[in-house]
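Narrative of activities, Objective 1.

The group set out to show that a structural description can be obtained from nothing but a protein's sequence at a throughput compatible with the screening campaign. Below is one input-output pair from the validation batch, recorded exactly as produced.
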Amino acid sequence: MRYWKQALRCFLIFFFLILMPVTAVYSEESAENVEEIEDTGEETGEETEEPIPESYYYPIESNNVQGWPQGPAIEAASAAVMDLDTGTFLYSKNATAKQYPASITKIMTTLLLVENCDLNDTITFSSIVYDVEEGSSHLGIQPGERMTLRAAAYGIMLESANDIANGVAEYIAGSVSAFADMMNARAAELGCVNTHFANPHGLYREDHYTCAYDMALIAQAAYKNPKFRKITGTRYYDIQKTNLTDEVRYLRNHHNMLHSDTEYYRDWCTGGKNGYTEACLNTLVTFGEKNGMRLVGVVLRVNGAGKAYQETAEIMEYGFDEFVTKNVKIGDSKTSFYDIMDLRYFGTASDFQSSVWKRRVSQGCRVAVTIPRNVSMQDLNCEVQSKEGVLRRTVSYSCGDWPVGTARGTFYPITGPVQMFFDRPSSWLELNQAARVSAHGNIQIESVEDLIEWISSIFTVCSQKILEFIENNLLVSAIVGFLALILILLFLIILIFRCKSDYRMEKRRKQEAVERRKREEEIDRMTAAEIEQELRAVMETERQREKQVQVRRAEAMRDATGADLMEKKLRETEELLDRLERGRRKR
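Output recorded for this entry:
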Protein backbone atom coordinates (compact mmCIF):
# COMPACT_ATOMS: atom_id res chain seq x y z
CA MET A 1 0.00 0.00 0.00
CA ARG A 2 2.89 2.29 0.79
CA TYR A 3 4.33 1.83 -2.69
CA TRP A 4 1.00 2.88 -4.28
CA LYS A 5 0.98 6.09 -2.32
CA GLN A 6 4.54 6.92 -3.36
CA ALA A 7 3.68 6.26 -7.03
CA LEU A 8 0.63 8.56 -6.87
CA ARG A 9 2.71 11.28 -5.22
CA CYS A 10 5.35 11.04 -8.00
CA PHE A 11 2.63 11.26 -10.65
CA LEU A 12 1.14 14.45 -9.19
CA ILE A 13 4.58 16.05 -8.97
CA PHE A 14 5.22 15.12 -12.59
CA PHE A 15 1.84 16.62 -13.66
CA PHE A 16 2.36 19.97 -11.96
CA LEU A 17 5.98 20.35 -13.01
CA ILE A 18 5.72 19.29 -16.67
CA LEU A 19 2.13 19.14 -17.99
CA MET A 20 0.80 22.41 -16.49
CA PRO A 21 3.32 24.69 -18.28
CA VAL A 22 2.55 22.91 -21.58
CA THR A 23 -1.20 23.35 -21.04
CA ALA A 24 -0.74 27.04 -20.24
CA VAL A 25 1.27 27.59 -23.41
CA TYR A 26 -1.36 25.79 -25.47
CA SER A 27 -4.17 27.86 -23.91
CA GLU A 28 -2.34 31.11 -24.67
CA GLU A 29 -1.83 30.07 -28.29
CA SER A 30 -5.50 29.11 -28.62
CA ALA A 31 -6.62 32.43 -27.16
CA GLU A 32 -4.39 34.30 -29.60
CA ASN A 33 -5.85 32.31 -32.50
CA VAL A 34 -9.42 33.10 -31.34
CA GLU A 35 -8.61 36.80 -31.06
CA GLU A 36 -7.10 36.76 -34.52
CA ILE A 37 -10.27 35.13 -35.90
CA GLU A 38 -12.52 37.65 -34.11
CA ASP A 39 -10.41 40.56 -35.29
CA THR A 40 -10.54 39.27 -38.83
CA GLY A 41 -14.31 38.92 -38.60
CA GLU A 42 -14.71 42.48 -37.34
CA GLU A 43 -12.52 43.88 -40.06
CA THR A 44 -14.05 42.07 -43.02
CA GLY A 45 -17.60 41.35 -41.81
CA GLU A 46 -17.64 38.23 -44.00
CA GLU A 47 -17.77 35.73 -41.18
CA THR A 48 -20.38 37.34 -38.85
CA GLU A 49 -22.91 39.09 -41.17
CA GLU A 50 -25.37 37.71 -43.69
CA PRO A 51 -24.50 38.39 -47.31
CA ILE A 52 -26.37 41.28 -48.96
CA PRO A 53 -28.82 39.90 -51.59
CA GLU A 54 -28.48 40.96 -55.19
CA SER A 55 -31.94 42.57 -55.07
CA TYR A 56 -30.54 45.23 -52.72
CA TYR A 57 -28.73 46.77 -55.69
CA TYR A 58 -31.72 46.81 -58.08
CA PRO A 59 -32.34 50.30 -59.52
CA ILE A 60 -34.47 52.85 -57.63
CA GLU A 61 -35.94 54.88 -60.48
CA SER A 62 -37.29 57.69 -58.26
CA ASN A 63 -33.77 58.45 -56.94
CA ASN A 64 -32.76 59.49 -60.46
CA VAL A 65 -35.34 62.31 -60.60
CA GLN A 66 -33.71 65.72 -60.33
CA GLY A 67 -34.67 67.44 -57.07
CA TRP A 68 -36.27 64.28 -55.69
CA PRO A 69 -35.32 63.25 -52.12
CA GLN A 70 -33.27 60.06 -52.07
CA GLY A 71 -35.34 57.08 -50.97
CA PRO A 72 -34.06 54.30 -48.70
CA ALA A 73 -32.22 51.28 -50.10
CA ILE A 74 -34.12 48.07 -49.34
CA GLU A 75 -33.75 44.37 -50.16
CA ALA A 76 -37.17 43.93 -51.81
CA ALA A 77 -36.82 42.99 -55.46
CA SER A 78 -39.55 45.51 -56.40
CA ALA A 79 -41.27 48.25 -54.43
CA ALA A 80 -43.44 51.32 -54.87
CA VAL A 81 -45.14 54.02 -52.80
CA MET A 82 -48.00 55.94 -54.41
CA ASP A 83 -50.18 58.83 -53.28
CA LEU A 84 -53.70 57.42 -53.44
CA ASP A 85 -55.30 60.81 -54.15
CA THR A 86 -53.00 62.18 -56.86
CA GLY A 87 -51.62 58.93 -58.29
CA THR A 88 -48.06 60.21 -57.90
CA PHE A 89 -45.39 57.54 -57.34
CA LEU A 90 -43.18 58.82 -54.53
CA TYR A 91 -40.90 55.79 -54.45
CA SER A 92 -40.23 53.37 -57.29
CA LYS A 93 -37.74 50.52 -57.23
CA ASN A 94 -37.71 48.13 -60.18
CA ALA A 95 -41.42 48.88 -60.22
CA THR A 96 -42.42 47.44 -63.60
CA ALA A 97 -40.39 44.24 -63.37
CA LYS A 98 -42.32 40.95 -63.45
CA GLN A 99 -42.86 39.46 -59.97
CA TYR A 100 -45.16 36.84 -58.44
CA PRO A 101 -47.75 38.34 -56.07
CA ALA A 102 -48.87 35.43 -53.83
CA SER A 103 -51.91 36.30 -51.69
CA ILE A 104 -51.95 40.03 -52.38
CA THR A 105 -53.80 38.82 -55.50
CA LYS A 106 -56.84 38.73 -53.21
CA ILE A 107 -57.02 42.54 -53.31
CA MET A 108 -58.22 42.27 -56.91
CA THR A 109 -60.50 39.34 -55.98
CA THR A 110 -62.15 41.33 -53.20
CA LEU A 111 -62.40 44.43 -55.40
CA LEU A 112 -64.40 42.49 -58.01
CA LEU A 113 -66.53 41.01 -55.23
CA VAL A 114 -67.55 44.37 -53.73
CA GLU A 115 -68.02 45.92 -57.18
CA ASN A 116 -70.23 43.19 -58.65
CA CYS A 117 -72.16 41.72 -55.71
CA ASP A 118 -74.47 42.62 -52.85
CA LEU A 119 -72.60 41.59 -49.71
CA ASN A 120 -75.88 40.64 -48.04
CA ASP A 121 -76.46 37.85 -50.58
CA THR A 122 -75.67 34.25 -49.66
CA ILE A 123 -73.08 32.06 -51.40
CA THR A 124 -73.30 28.25 -51.48
CA PHE A 125 -69.89 26.66 -51.99
CA SER A 126 -69.27 23.74 -54.31
CA SER A 127 -66.50 21.14 -54.36
CA ILE A 128 -64.24 23.79 -55.91
CA VAL A 129 -63.21 24.67 -52.34
CA TYR A 130 -61.02 21.54 -52.42
CA ASP A 131 -59.16 22.74 -55.52
CA VAL A 132 -56.27 24.34 -53.58
CA GLU A 133 -52.78 23.22 -52.66
CA GLU A 134 -52.46 21.06 -49.58
CA GLY A 135 -51.18 23.07 -46.63
CA SER A 136 -52.19 26.45 -48.06
CA SER A 137 -54.29 28.86 -46.01
CA HIS A 138 -58.00 28.01 -45.82
CA LEU A 139 -61.02 28.07 -43.50
CA GLY A 140 -62.15 24.48 -43.94
CA ILE A 141 -65.14 25.33 -46.11
CA GLN A 142 -67.23 22.29 -47.07
CA PRO A 143 -69.20 21.73 -50.29
CA GLY A 144 -72.78 22.83 -49.70
CA GLU A 145 -71.85 25.25 -46.91
CA ARG A 146 -73.57 28.63 -47.03
CA MET A 147 -72.54 32.07 -45.73
CA THR A 148 -73.02 35.70 -46.67
CA LEU A 149 -70.74 37.29 -49.24
CA ARG A 150 -69.75 39.81 -46.55
CA ALA A 151 -68.39 37.00 -44.39
CA ALA A 152 -66.68 35.54 -47.46
CA ALA A 153 -64.98 38.89 -48.18
CA TYR A 154 -63.63 39.06 -44.62
CA GLY A 155 -62.46 35.45 -44.90
CA ILE A 156 -60.52 36.31 -48.06
CA MET A 157 -58.88 39.50 -46.80
CA LEU A 158 -58.31 38.73 -43.11
CA GLU A 159 -57.70 34.97 -43.11
CA SER A 160 -56.44 34.74 -46.73
CA ALA A 161 -58.73 31.75 -47.27
CA ASN A 162 -57.96 30.17 -50.65
CA ASP A 163 -61.02 27.92 -50.53
CA ILE A 164 -63.33 30.93 -50.14
CA ALA A 165 -61.52 32.75 -52.97
CA ASN A 166 -62.21 29.83 -55.29
CA GLY A 167 -65.87 29.73 -54.26
CA VAL A 168 -66.32 33.47 -54.81
CA ALA A 169 -64.69 33.24 -58.24
CA GLU A 170 -67.10 30.50 -59.26
CA TYR A 171 -70.06 32.41 -57.79
CA ILE A 172 -69.28 35.61 -59.74
CA ALA A 173 -68.04 34.28 -63.09
CA GLY A 174 -69.08 30.63 -63.20
CA SER A 175 -65.52 29.27 -63.14
CA VAL A 176 -62.04 30.19 -61.97
CA SER A 177 -60.79 30.73 -65.52
CA ALA A 178 -63.68 33.06 -66.36
CA PHE A 179 -63.03 35.00 -63.16
CA ALA A 180 -59.35 35.29 -64.10
CA ASP A 181 -60.48 36.88 -67.38
CA MET A 182 -62.48 39.41 -65.37
CA MET A 183 -59.41 40.15 -63.24
CA ASN A 184 -57.26 40.73 -66.31
CA ALA A 185 -59.89 42.94 -67.93
CA ARG A 186 -60.14 45.07 -64.78
CA ALA A 187 -56.33 45.30 -64.58
CA ALA A 188 -56.18 46.52 -68.17
CA GLU A 189 -58.89 49.06 -67.42
CA LEU A 190 -56.80 50.42 -64.53
CA GLY A 191 -53.75 50.86 -66.80
CA CYS A 192 -51.65 47.93 -65.59
CA VAL A 193 -48.57 47.31 -67.73
CA ASN A 194 -47.18 43.93 -66.64
CA THR A 195 -49.94 41.88 -64.98
CA HIS A 196 -51.65 38.60 -65.80
CA PHE A 197 -53.83 36.74 -63.33
CA ALA A 198 -54.57 33.02 -63.58
CA ASN A 199 -56.40 32.37 -60.29
CA PRO A 200 -58.22 34.32 -57.55
CA HIS A 201 -55.95 33.41 -54.61
CA GLY A 202 -52.35 33.89 -55.78
CA LEU A 203 -50.93 30.38 -55.39
CA TYR A 204 -47.90 30.11 -57.66
CA ARG A 205 -48.35 29.64 -61.38
CA GLU A 206 -45.93 30.62 -64.10
CA ASP A 207 -48.58 32.72 -65.88
CA HIS A 208 -49.76 34.47 -62.70
CA TYR A 209 -47.65 37.58 -62.19
CA THR A 210 -47.74 41.33 -61.65
CA CYS A 211 -45.39 44.22 -60.75
CA ALA A 212 -45.20 46.81 -57.98
CA TYR A 213 -46.47 49.58 -60.27
CA ASP A 214 -49.57 47.59 -61.22
CA MET A 215 -50.30 46.46 -57.67
CA ALA A 216 -50.28 50.11 -56.57
CA LEU A 217 -52.86 50.93 -59.27
CA ILE A 218 -55.03 47.97 -58.23
CA ALA A 219 -54.75 48.93 -54.56
CA GLN A 220 -55.66 52.53 -55.39
CA ALA A 221 -58.86 51.43 -57.16
CA ALA A 222 -59.74 49.11 -54.28
CA TYR A 223 -59.17 51.77 -51.61
CA LYS A 224 -61.57 54.13 -53.36
CA ASN A 225 -64.35 51.64 -52.60
CA PRO A 226 -65.72 52.29 -49.07
CA LYS A 227 -66.73 48.64 -48.63
CA PHE A 228 -63.19 47.48 -49.36
CA ARG A 229 -61.72 50.15 -47.06
CA LYS A 230 -63.83 48.89 -44.18
CA ILE A 231 -62.89 45.26 -44.82
CA THR A 232 -59.14 45.80 -45.18
CA GLY A 233 -58.97 47.98 -42.06
CA THR A 234 -60.86 45.52 -39.83
CA ARG A 235 -58.65 43.90 -37.20
CA TYR A 236 -61.02 41.15 -36.02
CA TYR A 237 -64.13 39.56 -37.48
CA ASP A 238 -66.28 36.58 -36.47
CA ILE A 239 -67.92 34.33 -39.07
CA GLN A 240 -70.98 32.92 -37.36
CA LYS A 241 -72.14 29.31 -37.44
CA THR A 242 -73.26 28.05 -40.83
CA ASN A 243 -75.53 25.25 -41.98
CA LEU A 244 -72.58 22.81 -41.87
CA THR A 245 -70.36 24.28 -39.15
CA ASP A 246 -71.38 24.50 -35.50
CA GLU A 247 -68.39 26.63 -34.48
CA VAL A 248 -67.80 30.36 -34.83
CA ARG A 249 -64.75 31.16 -36.95
CA TYR A 250 -62.68 33.88 -35.27
CA LEU A 251 -60.62 35.87 -37.78
CA ARG A 252 -57.63 38.11 -37.07
CA ASN A 253 -56.18 40.36 -39.76
CA HIS A 254 -52.80 38.93 -40.79
CA HIS A 255 -51.39 42.41 -41.50
CA ASN A 256 -49.35 42.95 -38.32
CA MET A 257 -48.92 46.69 -38.78
CA LEU A 258 -52.57 47.02 -37.70
CA HIS A 259 -52.07 45.35 -34.32
CA SER A 260 -50.64 47.31 -31.38
CA ASP A 261 -49.46 44.10 -29.71
CA THR A 262 -46.83 43.49 -32.42
CA GLU A 263 -43.44 45.12 -32.94
CA TYR A 264 -44.45 46.16 -36.46
CA TYR A 265 -47.45 48.28 -35.39
CA ARG A 266 -47.80 51.73 -37.00
CA ASP A 267 -50.61 54.06 -35.97
CA TRP A 268 -50.90 55.41 -39.52
CA CYS A 269 -51.60 51.97 -41.03
CA THR A 270 -55.23 51.61 -42.20
CA GLY A 271 -55.14 48.17 -43.79
CA GLY A 272 -53.45 45.99 -46.36
CA LYS A 273 -52.74 42.42 -47.40
CA ASN A 274 -49.74 40.14 -47.01
CA GLY A 275 -48.72 37.07 -48.98
CA TYR A 276 -46.16 34.26 -49.04
CA THR A 277 -45.25 31.17 -51.03
CA GLU A 278 -41.89 29.48 -51.39
CA ALA A 279 -41.66 30.56 -55.02
CA CYS A 280 -42.87 34.14 -54.46
CA LEU A 281 -41.30 34.78 -51.03
CA ASN A 282 -42.98 37.52 -48.96
CA THR A 283 -45.17 40.18 -50.54
CA LEU A 284 -46.98 43.03 -48.78
CA VAL A 285 -49.41 45.81 -49.68
CA THR A 286 -50.03 48.48 -47.01
CA PHE A 287 -52.41 51.44 -46.82
CA GLY A 288 -51.62 54.41 -44.60
CA GLU A 289 -52.96 57.87 -43.74
CA LYS A 290 -50.93 60.61 -42.06
CA ASN A 291 -50.59 64.40 -42.25
CA GLY A 292 -53.54 64.63 -44.66
CA MET A 293 -51.89 62.21 -47.12
CA ARG A 294 -53.11 58.76 -48.10
CA LEU A 295 -50.42 56.41 -49.39
CA VAL A 296 -50.11 52.79 -50.47
CA GLY A 297 -46.86 50.87 -50.24
CA VAL A 298 -46.00 47.70 -52.17
CA VAL A 299 -43.01 45.42 -51.61
CA LEU A 300 -42.53 42.24 -53.66
CA ARG A 301 -40.19 39.29 -53.22
CA VAL A 302 -38.75 39.94 -49.76
CA ASN A 303 -36.96 37.18 -47.87
CA GLY A 304 -38.72 37.32 -44.50
CA ALA A 305 -42.06 38.64 -43.21
CA GLY A 306 -40.38 40.84 -40.60
CA LYS A 307 -38.15 42.40 -43.22
CA ALA A 308 -41.20 43.07 -45.42
CA TYR A 309 -42.85 45.03 -42.60
CA GLN A 310 -39.65 46.92 -41.77
CA GLU A 311 -38.95 47.93 -45.37
CA THR A 312 -42.59 48.91 -45.93
CA ALA A 313 -42.42 51.18 -42.87
CA GLU A 314 -39.18 52.74 -44.18
CA ILE A 315 -40.46 53.63 -47.63
CA MET A 316 -43.90 54.80 -46.47
CA GLU A 317 -42.53 57.01 -43.70
CA TYR A 318 -40.14 58.38 -46.30
CA GLY A 319 -43.24 59.31 -48.33
CA PHE A 320 -45.02 60.92 -45.37
CA ASP A 321 -41.96 62.88 -44.25
CA GLU A 322 -40.50 64.07 -47.55
CA PHE A 323 -43.59 65.00 -49.59
CA VAL A 324 -46.60 67.28 -49.43
CA THR A 325 -49.81 67.60 -51.48
CA LYS A 326 -50.74 71.00 -52.93
CA ASN A 327 -53.74 72.19 -54.95
CA VAL A 328 -53.29 74.23 -58.11
CA LYS A 329 -56.09 76.33 -59.62
CA ILE A 330 -56.12 76.75 -63.39
CA GLY A 331 -58.48 77.55 -66.25
CA ASP A 332 -60.49 80.41 -64.70
CA SER A 333 -63.34 81.83 -66.82
CA LYS A 334 -64.75 85.38 -66.71
CA THR A 335 -68.07 84.51 -68.35
CA SER A 336 -71.16 84.67 -66.11
CA PHE A 337 -74.66 83.20 -66.40
CA TYR A 338 -75.88 86.63 -67.50
CA ASP A 339 -73.56 86.39 -70.49
CA ILE A 340 -74.69 82.87 -71.38
CA MET A 341 -78.44 83.63 -71.24
CA ASP A 342 -78.03 87.16 -72.58
CA LEU A 343 -80.18 88.61 -69.77
CA ARG A 344 -78.93 92.04 -70.76
CA TYR A 345 -81.59 91.86 -73.47
CA PHE A 346 -84.21 92.55 -70.77
CA GLY A 347 -82.54 95.80 -69.82
CA THR A 348 -82.65 97.02 -66.21
CA ALA A 349 -84.98 94.15 -65.23
CA SER A 350 -81.89 92.00 -64.84
CA ASP A 351 -80.70 94.26 -62.01
CA PHE A 352 -83.43 92.86 -59.78
CA GLN A 353 -82.30 89.29 -60.27
CA SER A 354 -80.35 87.31 -57.67
CA SER A 355 -76.61 87.88 -57.42
CA VAL A 356 -76.21 84.13 -57.92
CA TRP A 357 -76.67 84.66 -61.65
CA LYS A 358 -73.72 87.04 -61.64
CA ARG A 359 -71.32 84.28 -60.63
CA ARG A 360 -68.84 83.08 -63.21
CA VAL A 361 -69.64 79.85 -65.01
CA SER A 362 -66.26 78.29 -64.27
CA GLN A 363 -64.29 78.95 -61.14
CA GLY A 364 -61.34 77.11 -62.56
CA CYS A 365 -60.00 73.57 -62.52
CA ARG A 366 -58.11 72.31 -59.46
CA VAL A 367 -55.17 69.98 -59.87
CA ALA A 368 -53.74 68.22 -56.82
CA VAL A 369 -50.00 67.58 -57.03
CA THR A 370 -47.70 65.70 -54.65
CA ILE A 371 -44.21 67.16 -54.62
CA PRO A 372 -41.12 67.10 -52.40
CA ARG A 373 -41.23 69.56 -49.53
CA ASN A 374 -38.19 71.41 -50.85
CA VAL A 375 -39.68 71.89 -54.36
CA SER A 376 -41.87 74.89 -55.21
CA MET A 377 -44.64 75.06 -57.80
CA GLN A 378 -42.45 77.30 -59.96
CA ASP A 379 -40.01 74.39 -60.36
CA LEU A 380 -42.64 72.16 -61.98
CA ASN A 381 -43.30 71.69 -65.67
CA CYS A 382 -46.90 72.13 -66.87
CA GLU A 383 -48.26 70.59 -70.06
CA VAL A 384 -51.77 70.88 -71.54
CA GLN A 385 -52.79 68.23 -74.04
CA SER A 386 -55.81 68.15 -76.34
CA LYS A 387 -57.37 65.30 -78.29
CA GLU A 388 -58.63 65.78 -81.82
CA GLY A 389 -62.38 65.38 -82.29
CA VAL A 390 -63.21 65.66 -78.58
CA LEU A 391 -62.77 68.65 -76.31
CA ARG A 392 -60.51 66.70 -73.98
CA ARG A 393 -58.02 68.72 -71.99
CA THR A 394 -55.35 67.07 -69.84
CA VAL A 395 -53.28 69.27 -67.55
CA SER A 396 -50.18 67.50 -66.29
CA TYR A 397 -47.54 68.68 -63.85
CA SER A 398 -44.15 67.04 -63.59
CA CYS A 399 -40.93 67.41 -61.66
CA GLY A 400 -38.42 66.97 -64.44
CA ASP A 401 -39.88 64.00 -66.31
CA TRP A 402 -41.57 62.51 -63.22
CA PRO A 403 -45.41 63.00 -63.12
CA VAL A 404 -46.68 64.58 -59.89
CA GLY A 405 -50.31 65.40 -60.72
CA THR A 406 -52.88 65.30 -63.51
CA ALA A 407 -56.39 66.67 -64.05
CA ARG A 408 -58.62 65.74 -66.96
CA GLY A 409 -61.71 67.41 -68.39
CA THR A 410 -63.82 66.04 -71.22
CA PHE A 411 -66.29 68.03 -73.34
CA TYR A 412 -68.04 66.07 -76.07
CA PRO A 413 -68.68 68.02 -79.27
CA ILE A 414 -71.99 69.88 -79.15
CA THR A 415 -73.43 70.02 -82.65
CA GLY A 416 -76.56 71.69 -84.01
CA PRO A 417 -78.06 71.69 -87.51
CA VAL A 418 -77.51 74.90 -89.43
CA GLN A 419 -81.20 74.94 -90.38
CA MET A 420 -83.01 75.10 -87.02
CA PHE A 421 -86.73 75.46 -86.27
CA PHE A 422 -86.22 79.12 -86.95
CA ASP A 423 -84.12 81.11 -89.41
CA ARG A 424 -80.48 81.61 -88.54
CA PRO A 425 -80.13 85.04 -86.91
CA SER A 426 -77.35 87.40 -87.71
CA SER A 427 -75.85 86.77 -84.27
CA TRP A 428 -74.78 83.33 -85.53
CA LEU A 429 -72.45 84.91 -88.05
CA GLU A 430 -69.98 85.80 -85.30
CA LEU A 431 -70.25 82.28 -83.93
CA ASN A 432 -69.36 80.81 -87.31
CA GLN A 433 -66.17 82.77 -87.32
CA ALA A 434 -65.02 80.96 -84.17
CA ALA A 435 -66.64 77.59 -84.90
CA ARG A 436 -65.89 75.07 -87.59
CA VAL A 437 -68.74 73.97 -89.87
CA SER A 438 -68.48 70.27 -90.70
CA ALA A 439 -69.22 68.69 -94.05
CA HIS A 440 -72.55 67.47 -92.70
CA GLY A 441 -73.76 71.00 -92.04
CA ASN A 442 -73.29 70.84 -88.25
CA ILE A 443 -71.47 73.37 -86.13
CA GLN A 444 -68.52 71.89 -84.26
CA ILE A 445 -67.71 73.60 -80.97
CA GLU A 446 -63.95 73.36 -80.43
CA SER A 447 -63.39 75.38 -77.25
CA VAL A 448 -65.13 76.37 -74.04
CA GLU A 449 -65.52 79.96 -75.23
CA ASP A 450 -67.15 78.73 -78.45
CA LEU A 451 -69.51 76.62 -76.40
CA ILE A 452 -70.47 79.61 -74.22
CA GLU A 453 -71.08 81.83 -77.24
CA TRP A 454 -73.17 79.13 -78.91
CA ILE A 455 -75.36 78.66 -75.80
CA SER A 456 -75.71 82.43 -75.44
CA SER A 457 -76.92 82.76 -79.02
CA ILE A 458 -79.48 79.98 -78.47
CA PHE A 459 -80.93 81.77 -75.42
CA THR A 460 -81.04 85.05 -77.35
CA VAL A 461 -82.87 83.55 -80.31
CA CYS A 462 -85.28 81.60 -78.09
CA SER A 463 -86.19 84.69 -76.08
CA GLN A 464 -86.82 86.63 -79.30
CA LYS A 465 -89.06 83.89 -80.70
CA ILE A 466 -91.01 83.62 -77.44
CA LEU A 467 -91.67 87.37 -77.34
CA GLU A 468 -92.75 87.34 -81.02
CA PHE A 469 -95.16 84.46 -80.35
CA ILE A 470 -96.68 86.28 -77.35
CA GLU A 471 -97.21 89.48 -79.37
CA ASN A 472 -98.91 87.58 -82.22
CA ASN A 473 -100.98 85.21 -80.03
CA LEU A 474 -102.06 87.19 -76.97
CA LEU A 475 -105.16 85.08 -76.20
CA VAL A 476 -103.36 81.75 -76.43
CA SER A 477 -100.45 83.14 -74.43
CA ALA A 478 -102.83 84.41 -71.72
CA ILE A 479 -104.59 81.03 -71.47
CA VAL A 480 -101.30 79.16 -71.31
CA GLY A 481 -99.97 81.57 -68.70
CA PHE A 482 -103.20 81.26 -66.64
CA LEU A 483 -103.02 77.45 -66.71
CA ALA A 484 -99.35 77.53 -65.78
CA LEU A 485 -100.14 79.88 -62.88
CA ILE A 486 -102.88 77.52 -61.62
CA LEU A 487 -100.52 74.55 -61.81
CA ILE A 488 -97.87 76.47 -59.91
CA LEU A 489 -100.38 77.47 -57.22
CA LEU A 490 -101.60 73.86 -56.89
CA PHE A 491 -98.04 72.70 -56.58
CA LEU A 492 -97.32 75.29 -53.89
CA ILE A 493 -100.48 74.37 -51.95
CA ILE A 494 -99.59 70.66 -52.05
CA LEU A 495 -96.05 71.50 -51.03
CA ILE A 496 -97.25 73.61 -48.09
CA PHE A 497 -99.61 70.90 -46.82
CA ARG A 498 -96.90 68.30 -47.23
CA CYS A 499 -94.43 70.43 -45.31
CA LYS A 500 -96.98 71.01 -42.54
CA SER A 501 -97.68 67.30 -42.29
CA ASP A 502 -93.98 66.54 -42.13
CA TYR A 503 -93.53 69.29 -39.55
CA ARG A 504 -96.30 67.89 -37.34
CA MET A 505 -94.90 64.40 -37.65
CA GLU A 506 -91.41 65.60 -36.82
CA LYS A 507 -92.76 67.59 -33.86
CA ARG A 508 -94.61 64.52 -32.59
CA ARG A 509 -91.46 62.42 -32.92
CA LYS A 510 -89.41 64.98 -31.02
CA GLN A 511 -92.05 65.14 -28.27
CA GLU A 512 -92.08 61.35 -28.00
CA ALA A 513 -88.28 61.34 -27.86
CA VAL A 514 -88.32 63.94 -25.06
CA GLU A 515 -90.91 61.96 -23.11
CA ARG A 516 -88.97 58.75 -23.65
CA ARG A 517 -85.77 60.42 -22.48
CA LYS A 518 -87.52 61.79 -19.38
CA ARG A 519 -88.91 58.36 -18.63
CA GLU A 520 -85.45 56.82 -19.00
CA GLU A 521 -84.01 59.39 -16.63
CA GLU A 522 -86.76 58.64 -14.10
CA ILE A 523 -86.02 54.93 -14.35
CA ASP A 524 -82.30 55.61 -13.86
CA ARG A 525 -83.08 57.47 -10.63
CA MET A 526 -85.38 54.72 -9.30
CA THR A 527 -84.17 51.94 -7.04
CA ALA A 528 -84.62 48.29 -7.89
CA ALA A 529 -87.48 47.99 -5.39
CA GLU A 530 -89.30 50.98 -6.91
CA ILE A 531 -88.87 49.57 -10.40
CA GLU A 532 -90.22 46.21 -9.25
CA GLN A 533 -93.18 47.89 -7.56
CA GLU A 534 -93.98 49.89 -10.68
CA LEU A 535 -93.73 46.80 -12.85
CA ARG A 536 -96.13 45.01 -10.55
CA ALA A 537 -98.55 47.94 -10.71
CA VAL A 538 -98.37 47.91 -14.49
CA MET A 539 -98.93 44.17 -14.56
CA GLU A 540 -101.91 44.54 -12.17
CA THR A 541 -103.36 47.25 -14.39
CA GLU A 542 -102.96 45.01 -17.42
CA ARG A 543 -104.62 42.18 -15.49
CA GLN A 544 -107.57 44.37 -14.52
CA ARG A 545 -107.92 45.58 -18.10
CA GLU A 546 -107.85 42.01 -19.36
CA LYS A 547 -110.42 41.01 -16.74
CA GLN A 548 -112.70 43.86 -17.81
CA VAL A 549 -112.38 42.76 -21.42
CA GLN A 550 -113.32 39.22 -20.45
CA VAL A 551 -116.31 40.47 -18.42
CA ARG A 552 -117.56 42.54 -21.32
CA ARG A 553 -117.08 39.60 -23.64
CA ALA A 554 -119.09 37.35 -21.27
CA GLU A 555 -121.88 39.94 -20.99
CA ALA A 556 -122.00 40.23 -24.73
CA MET A 557 -122.27 36.45 -25.01
CA ARG A 558 -125.09 36.41 -22.39
CA ASP A 559 -126.90 39.17 -24.22
CA ALA A 560 -126.59 37.24 -27.43
CA THR A 561 -127.89 34.07 -25.72
CA GLY A 562 -130.86 35.96 -24.19
CA ALA A 563 -131.75 37.41 -27.57
CA ASP A 564 -131.70 33.93 -29.07
CA LEU A 565 -134.04 32.63 -26.30
CA MET A 566 -136.43 35.56 -26.75
CA GLU A 567 -136.52 34.96 -30.47
CA LYS A 568 -137.23 31.25 -29.86
CA LYS A 569 -140.11 32.06 -27.47
CA LEU A 570 -141.57 34.49 -29.97
CA ARG A 571 -141.49 31.83 -32.66
CA GLU A 572 -143.21 29.32 -30.29
CA THR A 573 -145.89 31.92 -29.38
CA GLU A 574 -146.55 32.62 -33.04
CA GLU A 575 -146.91 28.91 -33.76
CA LEU A 576 -149.39 28.51 -30.81
CA LEU A 577 -151.49 31.42 -32.01
CA ASP A 578 -151.53 29.92 -35.52
CA ARG A 579 -152.79 26.58 -34.16
CA LEU A 580 -155.50 28.30 -32.09
CA GLU A 581 -156.61 30.31 -35.11
CA ARG A 582 -156.84 27.17 -37.27
CA GLY A 583 -158.86 25.35 -34.55
CA ARG A 584 -161.26 28.27 -34.22
CA ARG A 585 -161.87 28.27 -37.97
CA LYS A 586 -162.60 24.52 -38.01
CA ARG A 587 -165.27 24.97 -35.31
